[in-house]
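for the writeup, i need someone to sanity check this before i put it in the appendix. the sequnce is what the collaborator sent (i think, or maybe the updated version? ugh). structure was predicted straight from it, no edits. if anything looks off just tell me and ill rerun, i have time this weekend
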Amino acid sequence: MVSMNMENITQKYIDGVLHTLCGCGTCGKWFVAHKNTGDKKKEVRFVKGHYCIGKHPTKESIEKNRRAHLGRPSPNKGKTPSAETREKIRIARAKQVMKKGRLHTAESKEKNRLAHLGRQHTEESKRKLSLAITGQKRTDEQKRRLSECRKGDKNPSWLGGISKLPYTQDWTDDLRDAIRKRDGYKCQICGIRQSELSTSLDVHHIDYNKENCNPNNLVSLCKSCHIKTNRKRNDWTTYFIDRGQKKSIIAA
């Protein structure tokens, strides 16, 4: 925030709120004007935001400013703003240049994507996000848009449409029943029994090759665990091999 001489600034009321023209002389933007509480007699006003557009303080300047304010108590510490003050702040923020719905450029989106790449939420953050959306119901339009944005090659799990490839003639009900019986009618990841489920156990191809219906390449999984194996496929293949999951069918 840069103090300004009253002779060098232009002000006007917009929707009943005093605004000041940015002093950079380039952007032509109007900012909400605030009283300088440090000198109420003069009532000098200053612009909240930038005065010299495009200029940024150097690292040296930032460090000097940090040291100058080091240990200085905040004048607002421990104070609770009144309802009137909070309403004024809300109105002022609503009239700022950064408004909801502003479109980002493709370059801005890419920078934002790279900045968050690989970042993971903490368990506490996940819990808060879950609580924030608990009970919320999406409209039919929202459901349609969510479906469209994750359909086909837009889905992060997209592998070229291999899920639509047909199974071989060896993929029969008798084969799947034999695999479930061999595995004791239990999911080979979580251990839940088929009798505890409303449907039969799924039969999963360990190497993800639908044409390889060798019993050594098949394993029984509940639907929940079967969904998990769609991600990190190499890790799951190694998991089953390391456990010695590849077996032959035990004769009835």
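Confidence is low (pLDDT under 50) at residues 1-5, 36-49, 248-252. The chain is about 30% helix and 10% strand.
thx in advance!!
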